[in-house]
User: What shape does this take?
Amino acid sequence: MSPDELSKLMSDCANDAVVTAADEFNIVLDKSPESVALVDDVLLSFVDKYHDLALEDEAVFTICNIFGAYIGEILRVQLDGEWIYDQSNPQAPTVFLKVGENTYALAGICYERLVNDSQVSVFAYYEQALSNHKLNH
Assistant: This one.
């Protein structure tokens, strides 16, 4: 996958997140930095609305990828990052946002909140990424 194809895919996924949040929960994600805080609520809303169906593999994969892309696109613009497609594990290729020396697994943090621990905050992870960048520059 070329960098341009990956950028387009992540942008499309982020747009899917906007549409999904509006359609499913009437939550407006306007691509502003402030809207990242709403993603925490959206992720838990999936579990509230769909219960175990939200935790089926395919649903989890889609939810985590589109909302990870949404947060990543906001960070990418703010911090001049780039998307990286990591195929080191061919069974589970992963997309990261790379900013300077750091990489961020945004779908992974969405997964943690959705599946493992509702106390994990996607917004806190986002803020940590911002502060990492400010400290390094």
